[in-house]
Amino acid sequence: MALLRAAGAEVPVQAILFDKDGTLLDFVYTWGNWSEQLLARFSHELEARKLRPIEVDSDTLWGTRRSADGEMTDYDRNGPLAMGTVGELLAVLTWQGYRSGLSWAEAKVLARECASYANERLAQGRTVKPLEGVAAFLAQCRRAGLALGVVTADETETALEHLGWLGFGHYFDVCIGADRTERGKPFPDMVELACGKLGLPCSRVAVIGDTNGDMRMAKAAGAALAIGIAGPDGAGAELLADADAIIVSYGELAVLEGES
């Protein structure tokens, strides 16, 4: 069994489960882009119908953060874009469409159509990039004989597509999206399902994520270690209240082979 070292903690593990967005890939680069495409398209369609515009800005709607010049630079790790499923995000947008004058049914259809548009734009550009150091850490885990998995609020098919774009698909033995369980984060269901597929007890598995929902999911499942990834210079670390260890880069993690 390998030893996983993280921020002073050292725990024997047989597998690591990763959140995807903000943990394996740069959250703002992918989902910041996606959310802006989605909202711009939805707003355009409201304008074309001569309806009231959405009354809140994208930061308020999604939980994103911008610099003084308007560039999206960060996100609320407890906010809807970071923690919500695609279905939940579209429900938020549907509500805004209803407030602007669409029927609920019309707003639901429009939200889905705009999401399809945003997905297509994302696919055209393969708009993903890995967090610094993640590829080397995944390779290190594999050399140590660890099983690896993904547990994400995204849908499974989309998650697998993103992992393929990153060139990471071959590292992972299992990928569990929110569509594979009745309850998503912070409930333990995704960790429990992933561990079941790996044939391992949750107590021998570490979980790495960027939101406290990931940490609570890990704790609820009885995982060996819940590791939170904060932003640059520790931004958002205070929101990872249930983490056993907090890091800002993969350089702070190490896997020692063959320990018992």
Automatic annotation (TrEMBL):
- One protein family per Pfam: Hydrolase
The family database entries (CDD domains) matched by this protein are listed as: HAD_BPGM-like (cd07505)
**Keyword Chaperone among record annotations:** no
Among SUPFAM superfamilies, the record links this protein to: HAD-like (SSF56784)
GO molecular function terms noted in the UniProt entry: hydrolase activity
Per the record, the domain of life is: Bacteria
> Which InterPro entries does its entry note?
HAD-like_hydrolase_sf, HAD-like_sf, HAD-SF_hydro_IA, HAD_sf, PGP-like_dom2
Q: What's in the keyword line of the UniProt record?
A: Hydrolase
Q: What is this protein called?
A: HAD family hydrolase
